[in-house]
Amino acid sequence: MRRKLKLGLFGFGCVGQGLYHVLHETHGGVQAEIKKVCVKSKNKERPVKEDFFTFDKDEILNDPEIDVVVELIDDANAAYEIVKTALLRGKAVVTANKKMLAEHLEEIYELQQKSGKPVLYEGAVCGSIPILRNLEEYYDNDLLNSIEGIFNGSTNYILTKVFEEKKTYADALKKAQELGFAESDPSLDVKGYDPKYKLVIAIAHTFGLFIQPENVINIGIDKISDLDLKFARENNYTIKLIARSFRLDNRVYGFVAPQFIEATNPLASVRNEYNAVQVQGAFAEKQLFIGKGAGSYPTGSAVLSDLSALSYDYIYEYKKLHQADRFEFSNELIVEAYISFDESVKITINDFEVFQSGYAAHGKQYMVGQVKLSKLKEWSQADGVGIILAPNSQFIPVKTSSKQEALLA
Ligand code: HSE
């Protein structure tokens, strides 16, 4: 039986307006009425009449008639306070705030247990792609080996425009902002934070681990040079920003980094603001989900789907948390990468676990080889170093000494 929902909405930006639209366009599906919208700015022109809005969050949080809070604001700290208060006041929550969720997921899980009220957030991970409920429900019996793909629409849009239309990076980023794909601070997109937040959320539903975002390494696309693009074109590669997490034995690894992608890889044809998520199960093997990862209506549709799920009292059970196999998160990994750097940067072949090749051209040095993830993190924070993973990079756990192994046992 579906319940009728009374909503209090926070935020009326790109996704908030998308939800408003899809909610009014859906016929016979979700029965949900927005009672009030809480917004920050008093002076913005809005396409809906004024008495629909409030500037006081308590007008929603204290209203006993409102049973669902939909949180679609930009500020992760304010969003966290809203979500926490709403749950403690007995309201269900739908949110698309990936930063807030990634930073507080364990606490939000506990608050749900305590309050008995659900928090749903399909729109926070890869926009319109229905990945979280699939991880929870469809993949509840199959032990998952990996989840990876394109988790950020803006950077995929930028890379597509740069590759296919030879637009400059700056022009493509500006367009991604105009289209409402980019975060209000676009460095979250281009430096790989946004896909990292999404990966952190996905890891909880894939492997049952709550990880703090600062423990996950993110390397962005902001240091990709024209020479890297030229190298990619000459080798019939494209470049995608890939978020990935996988398990090897009892360890789970996860990181975000750009990667050269061969033309035959299905991810090569995922263009513009589309995202892709590839899940690999022990039995089902590989499955690929593709859909719009950013934008007003696609994300609004994911929020709508969460509302629909709430109307029949759906709640994430965090099934992987209760799985028999327990994993430990680790960054002790060796990957294969192309490193480009200015002559002023001190990187030598001794920094590589296995050095494969290197050359110098146009004032830049290139080195290719197997390198520890911790080294990549260090280099990603330095100026003038570009990092792109090799197309079919191997992922090799760092060997631990027998003393360390004894400590881990
Ligand atoms: N800035 C995000 C992206 C929006 O580009 O993917 C959707 O989460």
UniProtKB/TrEMBL annotation:
Q: Which PANTHER family match?
A: HOMOSERINE DEHYDROGENASE
**Record's NCBIfam families?**
PRK06349.1
Q: What is its EC number?
A: 1.1.1.3
Which residues belong to any copy of the Homoserine dehydrogenase catalytic domain? Answer: 130-307
Protein family: Belongs to the homoserine dehydrogenase family.
Q: Which GO terms describe its biological process?
A: methionine biosynthetic process; threonine biosynthetic process
What species is this protein from?
Ohtaekwangia koreensis
According to UniProt, the name of this protein is Homoserine dehydrogenase
Q: Which SUPFAM superfamilies match?
A: Glyceraldehyde-3-phosphate dehydrogenase-like, C-terminal domain (SSF55347), NAD(P)-binding Rossmann-fold domains (SSF51735)
